[in-house]
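Re: beginner question about structure tokens

> Can someone show what the tokenized structure looks like for a real chain? I only ever see the sequence side.

Sure, here's an example I had lying around. Input first:
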Amino acid sequence: MTRAHPRTQAGFGLVELMVGMAIGLVITLGAGTIFIELSQSQKRTQALGRQQAEVTFAMDTLIRDIRRADTIERKGGEYTLSFPGGEPHRYRIKDGALEQKIDDGDFQPLLTGVVAEADAEAPLMTQDASAASWGAWRLHLEIDTDMGGLRRFDMVAVQRQAAVDKDDA
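And the corresponding structure tokens:
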């Protein structure tokens, strides 16, 4: 008499392999999507940080010059800040950049991505009538962000000499 050997299964069947591959594919796609989202988020954060540093530098430079200036004049879209015993500094917005000119050199960009100045509607600098006697200037910048939106920056700077002269009067 021969003994019947029970059949034993060795390995996985086709259905089990297909289910396992499908689960692995879903997990891999999910991990890939998360990686891509994190990478894009990091790029946006770096771009925003870079732009914020550029805006800070440009505004600090402009505010420092306003504080030191004896006189500030506007002719067209160009601002001339005159200093005691020194060459004037000029500022303008041209071709999407806030530019600065020192002495007799060429205009150099301080900040790019600036929305062009509309001469009467949104000038770079305005003097508030109620604060004009003590040299307060409002700064207005509108920046086109790397993410397709606009950010508006409004600050106030005071000419030191005008403020001191006001206090002495």
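Each token stands for a local structural state, so reading them left to right follows the chain. The two ends are 127 Å apart (CA to CA).
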